[in-house]
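From the methods appendix. Each design record in this collection lists the tokenized structure first, followed by the designed amino acid sequence. Records were kept in a plain field format so they could be parsed without special tools. The example shown here is representative of the layout used throughout.

RECORD:
FOLD TOKENS (176 positions):
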């Protein structure tokens, strides 16, 4: 019989999550570094785009773009933390001990992070829509993702299931 520590699905999931963590860290760092350039380097950017600055690109527009970049970096940080919790859960499954209180806490934290990403995405979309209105020939749609809220609810329910599973296992170990 094959050990769970050699499960190819867990190995694949672990690899995908590690790559995803790298991508989110890169995106977050890049956008965090670029945001001050959008605010403080706006005059140089405007001069390079055209001699007088393009229609609609005002100081407020560049400040808003810098704000959007910071908000996206915050969402990337939340996504990184989400993936880190998921990686730790996968590692505990590989060790044969998924139903423990620590994983219940991780699932609950993942639910809160999913809600945080949804909460940050709405003002990000509003600011991006304002930017799109001020810049000629640009369009953007904003919306609310019911999928993100549903994910958070599912994660909170799974956290309770894992917490109850850990309690049941502790009771069973106490009776044997």
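DESIGN:
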């Amino acid at each position: 019989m094959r050990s769970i520590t050699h499960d190819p699905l867990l190995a694949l999931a672990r690899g995908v999550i590690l790559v995803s963590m790298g991508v989110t860290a890169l995106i977050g760092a890049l956008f965090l570094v670029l945001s001050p350039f959008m605010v403080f380097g706006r005059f140089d950017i405007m001069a390079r785009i055209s001699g007088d600055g393009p229609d609609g690109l005002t100081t407020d527009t560049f400040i808003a773009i810098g704000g959007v970049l910071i908000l996206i970096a915050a969402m990337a940080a939340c996504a990184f933390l989400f993936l880190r919790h998921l990686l730790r859960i996968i590692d505990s499954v590989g060790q044969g001990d998924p139903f423990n209180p620590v994983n219940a806490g991780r699932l609950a934290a993942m639910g809160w992070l999913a809600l945080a990403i949804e909460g940050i995405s709405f003002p990000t979309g509003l600011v991006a829509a304002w930017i799109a209105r001020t810049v000629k020939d640009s369009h953007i749609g904003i919306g609310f993702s019911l999928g993100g809220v549903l994910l958070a609810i599912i994660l909170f329910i799974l956290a309770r299931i894992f917490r109850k599973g850990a309690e049941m296992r502790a009771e069973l170990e106490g009776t044997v």
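APPENDIX NOTE: The mean pLDDT is 86.
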